Amino acid sequence: MGCYTDNPDAIAALVRGREVHRDVYIDPEIYRLEMKHLFANSWVFVGHDSQTPNKGDYFTTQIGDQPVIQVRHSDGEIHVLYNRCPHKGTKIAIDRTGNTGKFFRCPYHAWSFKTDGCLLAIPLKKGYENTGFEQAEGSKGMRAVGAVKNYRGFIFARLAEEGISFEDYFGGSLSSLDNMVDRSPAGRLEVAGPPLRYMHKCNWKMLVENQTDTCHPMVAHESSAGTAVKLWEELDMPEGTPLPPAMEIIAPFMSAYEFFEKMGIRTWPNGHGHTGVHHSIHSNYSAIPGYFEAMSEAYGEERAKAILGENRHNTVYFPNIMIKGPIQQLRVFIPLAADKTLVESYIYRLVDAPDELTARTAMYNRMINAPTSIVGHDDLEMYERAQEGLACDGLEWVNVQRLYEEDEDFDTETVENGTTERQMRNQFHAWVKFMTADMGPKETRSKEAAE
Amino acid sequence: MSLTRDDLIDFIYDEARMLDEGRYDEWLALWQKDGHYWMPLDYKQTDPIQVTSLMYEDIFMLKLRVERLNGARTFSQKPKSRCHHVLSRPYVDEMDNEAGRYVTTTFMHYVETRLDDQFLLALTARHELALVDGKIMIANKRVDILNCDAAFGNIQLLP
Ligand code: FES
Ligand SMILES: [Fe+2]
Description:
The complex is a heterodimer of chains A (about 450) and B (about 160). Chain A has about 450 residues and is of the alpha+beta class. Chain A has 16 helices and 22 strands. In chain A, strands 13, 14, 15, 16, 17, 18, 19, 20 and 22 form a nine-stranded antiparallel β-sheet that branches. In chain A, helix 3 (about 30-40) crosses helix 15 (about 420-435) and helix 11 packs across helix 12. Classes of the chains: A alpha+beta (about 450), B alpha+beta (about 160).
């Protein structure tokens, strides 16, 4: 046991406003505590309900380091169960997706469970008669997570039995998810194909922070976006030639600092926030024929304009996802170790909207977020260099003080200059809160978390 | 003019060697203008447009990709990656000398390395080739990675 376990004061001391201690990124004990506390106390994204459309459909993933199954029960509701047989621990489902019919059946000794986890049957059950089996943990079947919420098709779970409610946790930040779903004339999204899976040898929080790091694109992505702009200029197309879709996607990465300053950053309580309050790199995509008409028909022209007028860039839902509403992309940063993160990038199709929109989103996903993507290469190089650089002794703090202000209040929504690092500070404020909410003896729990 | 099987097979070997030796200008010159390099994300994927792929790149994107490799501020290529293809003998699946259209399938092992890391991919490359003014050109190329659904780190060169 190191110095952080059951020590909320030591955890809180890692975050001191303008800077955070490197241990949050590199210390294996901190990683284990994040899994035990932070990922248990917060609401974590699991999957989309269109990944399990029919009764018995399941999808396996993990919440923090906990293997879970998202499954559609016989009553049509989505349940989230730990992926573990209560008998001897065997994982119940190994495929990423499948249909289990009316029940799960463990492949080891054939205990079976209803799709809400309840124990259904055990072969040769008489062997447990008069053994006090009813008292055993295993008699209750597969364990469910603490709480599940299906918000407009997006499944979130809280592992802890008790804690903050979904509504209190996300509050006003749900407006970004709303906007993403409202962009479908039917008000519904469907997952489009499997996600990209990209392994990063760095801490998961570096990825989350980078989502609102607006001072890196013009530097780190000069190699990809800058070269694209240069090649396009060399083609010397006649004035007014519309940019091809690939250029529409990549060129805005080279926008000047001023563009990012003016786009604005909004922060919400509990670590959520987004870039692109006023405009974003997604603002100037060309219109797809028939889309606005379909939206106007569904919502009325005024409301359709309002929905499509939002161009939020990246919305971070603390702890570990970001969404891009204008293009229906969701990226989940799954922590595997202090220095290892699996990034899965999903795209969704807007039900009843033209296919060209999905085509553009698929293009964005592969151009920007694939292991084969030149923009992805730029970013990963920076994360991995940071992870290695943090080993240096004598410089133990990471600086997050751009546009810092005294007495920042993270419990209120604010809009600031788009190059502020306030959202990173907001995340670390929430990080301390949910790390320490159930840590150590009751008296020493941080005052705020207990509120 | 009509091609022999050996002409096609030699072409496939020569192309792989260009990639391994980083002769990208020569490599780009092999492509027809409307060609696409497709690397599916899913096993037996049929649609490159409406779902995500690892790559689906036209000539502009391929040019951008290889140009970037030599950029002064391409930090992920400092130091540079190196790659190596090992081919088994290509199958000539379709051969239409009259139309000047050909299809080959080639199984390959691909190794890429940078700094202390090295990884191996097992590939199936499908080439659609065309005979244009006496020259073999790539009309389209599809590269399937055997474990396409696995999580990868950076794949920076061209498998
Ligand atoms: S381990 Fe599952 S039934 Fe025995
Ligand atoms: Fe980036």
